[in-house]
């Protein structure tokens, strides 16, 4: 969706951001770092052009954790919401977390990453 404007915010509402499409490479990432940071089966992301990403409020509340040499994970230091992942090796892109978008993202997730560490407890079985 070219030129689409995306809006996102954290759980406490202190941080809000916007970015513009086109959205690329939507993914569920099952790497163990995403599982730890999100406390969930995966981190789910949408890649957008970094130049379009701006904080509308609360930038001072955002802390980055360096999870690897190049990986930076931005989160709200008040509520802990994970906001984005970015790489210092590809400054042109940023991966915003799909769950922080509002209204909810209506596109599809097109990729699964690190399926070798996808939890055995996913999906639901009864
Ligand atoms: Zn927050
Ligand atoms: Zn990951």
Summarize the helices and strands and which ones pair or pack.
Layout: E1 5-9, E2 16-20, E3 24-29, H1 32-38, E4 43-49, E5 54-57, E6 62-66, E7 71-76, E8 82-87, E9 93-97, E10 111-113
One zinc ion (ZN) binds at residues 29, 31, 33-34, 43, 114.
Explain what you see.
By secondary structure, the chain is mainly beta. It has one domain: Metal Binding Protein, Guanine Nucleotide Exchange Factor, Chain A (Beta Complex). 6% of the residues lie in helices and 41% in strands. The chain is built from one helix and ten strands, in the order E-E-E-H-E-E-E-E-E-E-E. The chain has a seven-stranded mixed beta sheet. Strand 7 and strand 8 form a beta hairpin. The chain is globular. The model has no long low-confidence stretch (mean pLDDT 95). One zinc ion (ZN) binds next to helix 1. One zinc ion binds next to helix 1.
Highlighted features:
mainly beta; Metal Binding Protein, Guanine Nucleotide Exchange Factor, Chain A; binds zinc ion; 1 helix; 6% helix
Uncertain residue ranges = none
What is CATH's topology name? Answer: Metal Binding Protein, Guanine Nucleotide Exchange Factor, Chain A
Q: Between the first and last Cα atoms, what is the distance in angstroms?
A: 37 Å
**Hetero ligands:** zinc ion
Shape: globular
- CATH architecture level-2 label: Beta Complex
Which sequence of SSEs, written as H and E, runs from N to C?
Answer: EEEHEEEEEEE
What is the alpha-carbon Rg in Å?
14 Å
| Spatial strand arrangement across the major sheet | 6-7-8-9-4-3-10
Number of helices: 1
Strand tally is 10
Under the CATH scheme, which class?
Answer: Mainly Beta
The amount of beta strand, in percent, is 35-45%
Query: Mind summarizing the main beta sheet?
Result: 7 strands, mixed
- Average the pLDDT over all residues and give the rounded result: 95
């Amino acid at each position: 969706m070219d030129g689409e404007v995306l809006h996102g915010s954290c759980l406490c509402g202190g941080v809000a951001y916007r970015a513009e499409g086109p959205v690329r490479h939507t993914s569920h990432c099952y790497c163990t770092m995403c599982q730890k940071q999100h406390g969930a089966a995966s981190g789910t992301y949408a890649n957008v052009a970094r130049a379009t990403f701006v904080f509308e409020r609360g930038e001072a509340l955002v802390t980055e954790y360096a999870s690897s040499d190049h990986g930076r994970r931005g989160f709200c230091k008040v509520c802990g919401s994970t906001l984005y992942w970015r790489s210092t090796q590809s400054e042109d892109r940023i991966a915003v977390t799909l769950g922080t978008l509002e209204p909810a993202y209506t596109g599809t997730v097109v990729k699964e990453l690190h399926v070798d560490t996808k939890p055995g407890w996913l999906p639901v079985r009864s």
